[in-house]
Amino acid sequence: MKAKEKKKSGAILAVSAGIFVIALSISSFFLLQIIGRMNQSANQNLLTSSRVISEGLNNKITLDRELLSALTELLALEENGVIEETLREYADSTDFFRFAYIDMEGEGVDSEGNAVYASDLPFDEIALSKGTDGMSAPYHGASGRIHITYQSPVFREGKQIGAVYADRIIDDYNLPTLFTFHNGAGSAYVVDGNGDFIIKSRGTASETDVYSYLAKQKNGAAIQDTLRRVIQEGKSGTLVVTNEAQPSLLGFLPVESPQGCYLITVVPRAVLQQEAKPIIIMLCTMFALLLLGGLSVATLFAGRQSMKADVRQKEYREKLFGNLSANIDFAFLLYTPAGRKVELVSDNLSGLLGITPEQAQEKPERIFDASGLPQGDADRSSFFNGTLKEQTTRESMVGVGPNEVKRWIAVHLIPADYGQYLAVFHETTEEHNMREQLADALTQAQNSNRARSAFFSSMSHDIRTPMNGIVGMTNIALNNLDDREKVESCLNKITGASGHLLELINEVLDMSRIESGRISLKEETVHLPSLIANLLSFLKPDMDKKNQSLLMKSQILEHDTVISDGLHLQKILLNLLSNAAKYTQAGGEISLQITETPVDAETIRMSFVVEDNGIGMSPAFLKRIFKPFERAEDSRMSQTTGTGLGLAITKSIVDMMGGDIRVQSREYEGSCFTVEIPLKLPAQQAREYPNLAGYTALIVDDDQDACESISLILQETGIRANWVTNGPEAVEQLWNAHVRKDDYYVVILDWKMPEMDGLETARQIRKRLGSEVPILLLSAYDWESVKDEAVRAGINGFLTKPIFKSGLLEKLRYYIRGEKSKTEALGTEQSLSLEGVRILAAEDNELNREIIIELLESSGALVDSVRNGQQALDRYLNSSPGHYQLILMDVHMPEMDGLEATRAIRGSGRPDAATIPVIAMTADVFKEDIRKCKDAGMNAHIGKPLEIDKLYATLRRFLNNDQKKAGM
Ligand code: ADP
């Protein structure tokens, strides 16, 4: 901007200068012309004056000549005797010096009476000798001065008788009126051909010739030479000379007579130019004025331009700053330290720092105080005293007080042009926080990286250990094929190691699925009692090994069926409970408490609390516990295998289910994990509970709360329930009732009670009261192990904790009224025999194929195996209808996949096309995959790797149906 303005005013200056130079040249040209003309006219003027003088001199001479001719005529008439007198009279009456008359003999007389002889005449005589008249050249006469003599022949009657001579002192002609001009300023001289003065004038008294006069007047030889030359050449003109110390003009003009003489006129130039002077002065003044005018116009213009540019620049600057500050979060202060002047301050300063522009104008230091840059700061000081050399940036925190909001303000201090300094303020709180967050994230990333590396090193160790076991045991088994016991023990160990390996791989896969967001939850009906029973059956062996006890602390649960992803729900509890078992010493105690709270008509919130009295965790580790790959570094844990992924997976699943997981723990004291999950209820939950009004029951449990909650439920059905908290009291109560003839209809007896346990109590009851009253044993889990003993002690049935309302009531109905529930009926089904069942199995992986054949054939099935969907289809189409009772179909296979093969089978139009059970075997166990299988016409699916129990359970479902149907 500034550069542009500079350029513009430069251009204006250049144009003005150009115009000025042209004007000056034109003016100078005219001035020179005028001066030239004036000089010319001065020359003319001088020559004119010279001519006038020359004319005047001529007139005088003519007059003198006429006078002499009159005398000549007079003398021609006179007698010789009177000549002398006439001459005298003439001399007296005229200004002539003397007259003379000489006769033809050369003798004569003059006006003074003196005899004259022609031979003595001091000039060239022509009148007597040549008979012509004329004028002599100037000569030094008898007066001692320069004379000229007019001579004329005298004729009488046509014959020359003599000649008359009239002497004139030439200086007589030197009349001031004639020989001075221009009011006496100019003088005239007459010189002869040699330059000698004939008629002198002012100032030439001491000089004899004009050249020496000029030399005396300090004129160079050149001038004298010029004059000499022009005189010799008979020219007329003017010369510039110095006369009486002033520049003068010298005119030279040949005069008619005396012959060969020149009239020299000299006049100071000043005099000649007198008239021109006012004009020249006027012109010069005009010129000067013009110059001055031009200059001032140019200056004014340039000034105006630069003033305009300044104003414009200022306006522009203010506008720019205004726009900037209105649209960005940067506030400005422009300051000139030299004048301690605030040049500019942006309006948004008040918004940013709470300082109004007026306050800033008054005391700019305030802005810096508000921005947090302290008074003693070196950069701040150098900004105010104008010593700041280069741009600097400072960031400070404001709002340090307890109730103030902390903010970060950055100040950029910038030395600008013209001794001004710019301070730019803006808030950097967000950037600052982001920087800190990034630093935190970096630390976290580094930590997680560290954990990952630790994981990989422990993973490779964890994988290698069971692998070594498997390889080693396989070798031992191979070498001892004859020793059945050894082979069996080897195989058992191999099974254990493979199980661990599989778990490890599954967890890593699960984690990676979760991390990449590929996991999705199923929505299926989950039967909680089965889920818990399943769970406990997994955990029991390990807990038993460590002699740990599991406590079920739950009250009675209202709902036994919910909508959820059963596998994942089970995984959550399995992880927590297996950790509790893993990280609790032998003989430790682990408890699971399940409670439900209603959310709305369709949802409940179920909480699962897993507590142990194991090794616990440090507060520092608790912060990281849910991060993947984190394991506590604890010497007590060195014996336990693990990946550090279980809890990360658990937390991810809980999160996906919309639940919440918390942990409390103290080192050496134990840990407590709480999971709360919202669970949907299936639509047909309204169950009809049996009406058992009028019946009585006795509840025996050392846990008073349990007694109360059970009796509450019983009362709902009309049962009159009493409770006692120990065995002896129970026996007592029962006996008393018996005596009153008011026997209880049923006894619910807790197994684990101090002093006298459930079994002992049952024995006592049977001993006193016989086998009449049904006794239900209430146990945490694992009644199978005491089943025989319990039956012997007189127990009729079992109730497992946690107690679900429906289960409890169904049991009561059965034992009080003798009605069997559906589940009970199902539970008594015999285990599956595949004897003679024909199964078609399609599986492309050879090892898997081998395993499946082995598993099925070991149960008596007849298995035909194929390698892809096409072969399966062909095999099916080529068999007679009903030949195969079931098809196991891998999904991913070459040539034709399982889905397509199933569609082809279902669409084959054979009699069993729609009914033959097709069961998918797939590693894809997500909702989406299952839906695809169902859409293709498959009946169910089993996950891979195959788990025997699950495989049998599924086969049982379809083959039983089949058998029933077949039976119908
Ligand atoms: P893993 O058990 O495979 O190491 P987890 O993610 O299940 O991985 O657990 C992470 C870590 O948390 C464990 O290594 C252990 O240090 C600690 N931990 C988990 N549960 C308990 C518990 N009940 N008592 C003590 N420490 C536990």
Kindly list the characteristics that best describe this protein.
single chain, 968 residues, alpha+beta, seven-stranded antiparallel beta sheet, six-stranded antiparallel beta sheet, 29 helices, 47% helix, 21% strand, rod-shaped, disordered C terminus, binds adenosine-5'-diphosphate
Which helices and strands occur, and which strands form pairs?
Elements: H1 2-77, H2 83-93, E1 98-103, E2 107-110, E3 115-117, H3 127-130, E4 134-135, E5 139-140, E6 146-156, E7 159-169, H4 176-179, E8 180-181, E9 186-191, E10 197-199, H5 210-216, H6 221-232, E11 237-243, E12 246-254, E13 262-268, H7 269-272, H8 276-327, E14 331-336, E15 341-345, H9 349-353, H10 357-362, H11 365-371, H12 378-385, E16 392-398, E17 407-415, E18 421-427, H13 429-479, H14 484-515, E19 524-527, H15 528-545, E20 549-552, E21 561-564, H16 566-582, E22 589-600, E23 603-612, H17 619-624, H18 646-656, E24 660-666, E25 670-680, E26 696-700, H19 704-716, E27 720-724, H20 727-739, E28 746-750, H21 758-769, E29 775-779, H22 787-793, E30 797-800, H23 805-817, H24 822-827, E31 838-842, H25 846-858, E32 862-866, H26 869-878, E33 886-890, H27 898-906, E34 918-922, H28 927-935, E35 940-943, H29 948-967
Parallel strand pairs: 20-22, 26-27, 26-28, 28-29, 29-30, 31-32, 31-33, 33-34, 34-35
Antiparallel strand pairs: 1-2, 1-7, 2-3, 4-6, 5-6, 6-7, 8-9, 9-10, 9-13, 11-12, 12-13, 14-15, 14-18, 16-17, 17-18, 19-21, 22-23, 23-25, 24-25
Helix pairs in contact: 1-8, 5-6, 13-14, 14-18, 15-16, 16-18, 20-21, 26-27
